[in-house]
Amino acid sequence: MKLFFGEIIPDVKINDEEQQHIVKVLRMKEGEEIFVTDGKGNLAKGNLVFEGKKVSLNVTEVQEYFPKLTRQLHIAIAPTKNIDRIEFFVEKATEMGISEITILNTEKTERKNLNIEKLRKQAVAASKQSLRFFFPKINDITKLSDFIKNVNPEMTFVAHCDVAFERINLSEIPELTNPTFLIGPEGDFSEKEIKMLAEKGIKAVSLGHQRLRTETAGIFVAAWNYYKSISE
Asked: Where does the record place a coiled coil (predicted)?
C-alpha cells in the first residue's frame, strides 16, 4: 500500500507537498494506484491523474472512520538535549499508536526551544510508513505546572527515578482507555516537581530496576500501551 496525506471530506485532495514528492522524488506514473488518508481515520483509494504540475486522484473507494486503538495514550515528555533522541521517540511512539504528545518544560529541561512543526511532519511520515490512519496530536512546549492544571489525576501517572517516593509497577495500573504519562528530562524531575505532582494526586510508576533514558522511557510506555491495546 502506497499511503499519502491529504483531504478526504468533502473531497479527496492530495497534500501539496505530497504532490511534489510523487512527481519529483518518487517519479510515479499516471494511473498508479495509491491511498490517501487525512489522519482522522478516513481513507481513499484511487488512481493518479496528472494535470501539468498538479496531481489528483481518480477515486475508486472511500472508507470513513476506521476504529481507533482502544487505549488513547498521551505522553508528556521533556525534550532531550540531543534533539535526535526526542525525534526518535516521536517516530517510534507514533508507529505504536500514541494519540497525543506534549513537550514538557521542566526545571531541569536544558532544551527550551525546538521545532514543533518538524516533529509534526515526522509524526505524519511515521504514520504513513506504519499505515496509521489517525495521526497523533503534537502539542506545543508547555510548562509542567501549566500542564497538570488540566489533567485528570485518576488517569495520569509520572515515571521518575526517586526511590524516596512511593512508586507502583505498571502491572498495578488499572485498565484505562485514555491514560496520560509524564516522562522527565535528563536528570529526572526535581524533588519539588515530584512533590507537586504527588500533591495533585498523580501516582508515580516504576519502569523497572534499570534507569532508562528519557526517550527510552517514553518508547517503553508507548510499547506497553500498544501491547495492552492489541491484547484486548
From this structure: none
The domain defined by 3-63 folds into Ribosomal Protein L25; Chain P (2.40.240)
Q: If residue 64 lies in a helix (H) or strand (E), which one and from where to where?
A: none
How is domain 74-231 classified at the CATH fold level? Alpha/beta knot (3.40.1280)
147 bridge partner residues = none
CATH 3.40.1280.10 maps onto the chain at: 74-231
pLDDT digits (tens, 9 = 90+) for 104-126: 999 999 888 899 999 999 999 99
Which residues does 18 contact at the CB level (< 8 Å), separation at least 6? 4, 5, 6
Tens digit of each residue's pLDDT (9 = 90 or more) over 135-188: 999 999 999 999 999 999 999 999 998 888 889 998 888 888 899 999 999 989
- List, in sequence order, every residue forming a beta bridge with 36; answer none if it has no partner: 4, 44
Q: CB-side exposure of 151: number of CA atoms within 13 Å?
A: 25
Which residue blocks in 61-208 are alpha helix, DSSP H? 83-95, 116-129, 144-147, 191-199
Pairing of β 33-37 and β 43-51? antiparallel
CA–CA separation, 175 vs 197, rounded Å? 21
